[in-house]
Amino acid sequence: QVQLVESGGGLVQPGGSLRLSCAASGFTFRIYTMGWYRQAPGKERELVATITAAGGSTTYADSVKGRFSISRDNAKNTVYLQMNSMKPEDTAVYYCKVRLRSDDYWGQGTQVTVSS
């Protein structure tokens, strides 16, 4: 079955960096667009970044442009989110997602906390 497993979250100081990973299995990873989302306490889940199947096109939320970078390794069935110059408002649970036909599949999420 489809599985998405995020890792790499943790506590980081403002201005610091983290790299999240999402390992995928159960589907043909290389042909699907992948996305990273986040949900802060008391807020709705929001889109952070997406990357197309071959990695040729990416999109970002305005709030992370210039600071975050999404990438993928199709040989490893893994999508990454490099987060730099982090801010306290980046604190959230981060999820990866894939849409297969009309169904969305989510990972369990990884907590990211930006605090001094």
Can you give a write-up of this model?
The protein has 116 residues and is an all-beta fold. Helix content is 0%, strand content 53%. It is built from no helices and eleven strands. It has strands at 3-7, 10-12, 18-25, 34-39, 46-51, 58-60, 68-73, 78-83, 92-100, 103-106, 110-114. Strands 2, 4, 5, 6, 9, 10 and 11 form a seven-stranded mixed sheet that branches. Strands 1-3-8-7 form a four-stranded antiparallel sheet, with no helix packed on it. The chain is globular and about 40 Å long.
Assess the beta-strand content as a share of residues.
Answer: over 45%
Q: Report the C-alpha radius of gyration, rounded.
A: 13 Å
How many E strands? 11
Elements, N to C (H/E): EEEEEEEEEEE
Taking all residues together, what is the mean pLDDT?
97
- Given as residue ranges, the uncertain stretches (5+ residues, pLDDT < 50) are none
Structural class: mainly beta
**How would the global form be characterised?**
globular
Number of helices: 0
Task: Summarize the amount of helix as a percent range.
Answer: under 10%
SSE map:
Layout: E1 3-7, E2 10-12, E3 18-25, E4 34-39, E5 46-51, E6 58-60, E7 68-73, E8 78-83, E9 92-100, E10 103-106, E11 110-114
Parallel strand pairs: 2-11
Antiparallel strand pairs: 1-3, 3-8, 4-5, 4-9, 5-6, 7-8, 9-10, 9-11
